[in-house]
Design brief:
The chain is 80% helix and 0% strand. The protein has 79 residues and is mainly alpha-helical.
Length: 79
């Protein structure tokens, strides 16, 4: 009804084509009490920040807004 399955499939295909899936799967956890592990996380994120910003730019914002509108319509139809 909301198109979220279709959106997820397309998003995953785009991630794989641009290599974003490998970047995201390699992100270390920021949840740590050791500063050295957190520095590793920060360094990794800063290194890959441009690729992530390029991928998740204005183009994806429109899609997320459309999915949000679809969820709102579905909730109204259910009531």
């Amino acid at each position: 009804m909301t198109g979220s399955t279709f959106h997820c499939k397309n998003l995953n295909e785009k991630k794989k084509a641009r290599g974003i899936d490998m970047i995201e799967s390699g992100i270390p956890s920021p949840k740590t009490s050791r500063i050295s592990v957190y520095k590793t996380y920060a360094k990794y994120m800063l290194t890959n920040l441009d690729a992530l910003y390029t991928f998740y730019g204005c183009e994806t914002a429109k899609n997320y807004f459309m999915l949000y509108q679809g969820r709102q319509r579905v909730q109204e139809q259910m009531v």
